[in-house]
Each structure stands twice: as structure tokens, then as C-alpha cells.
Amino acid sequence: MEQLAQAAMRQALDACGGNVAQAARRLGISRSTLYRRLGPQRA
Asked: Alpha-carbon distance 1 to 4, whole Å?
């Protein structure tokens, strides 16, 4: 299940050109939640 969430977050980020705020809005979560869930993988 976690892999699906990670894939959805990556897909949203790709679709938004790396814009975390826009990806978070698209996913229906806050920007800080997206950063936290991405963790060290964001880089």
C-alpha cells in the first residue's frame, strides 16, 4: 500500500513539474504532509 502512495506522490510531482504545493493540492493533502511523506526521497 505504501508503494502505491509513493507512486501517486511521484506521479503528482511529475505532472506538476516538481511544484510541491501544486502536487499537494492535486493529492488533497497539505504541502508539509507531502514533504513529510516523501522524506529523504525528495532529493
From this structure: 5
